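Design job #97: recover the sequence.
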């Protein structure tokens, strides 16, 4: 399912992809995601905290509606960070 179906702006996605090419920012995001489990990514409060942290690191202020859309998207994907297939599926969505 596409992120656009959740109301996530493609322009925002493109800005974030561009910013993630910066090695310094990429490493900060990786450090924030260290030890994250699939259960963490199904917990609405934890996902909301991740979205807020990433927004701050990337310098992308988000509205409440944008944050809510992202949280709903992450929870709906049922991501398992230890499952290579899940990670490839996500990579394919955003490449």
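Job complete. Output follows.
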């Amino acid at each position: 399912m596409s992120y656009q179906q959740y109301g996530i702006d493609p322009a925002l996605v493109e800005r974030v992809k561009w910013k993630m090419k910066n090695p310094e920012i990429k490493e900060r995001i990786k450090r924030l995601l260290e030890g994250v489990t699939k259960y963490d990514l199904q917990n609405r409060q934890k996902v909301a905290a991740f979205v807020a942290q990433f927004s701050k690191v990337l310098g992308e202020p988000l509205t409440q509606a944008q944050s809510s859309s992202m949280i709903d998207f992450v929870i709906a994907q049922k991501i398992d960070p230890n499952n290579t297939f899940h990670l490839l599926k996500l990579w394919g969505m955003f490449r």
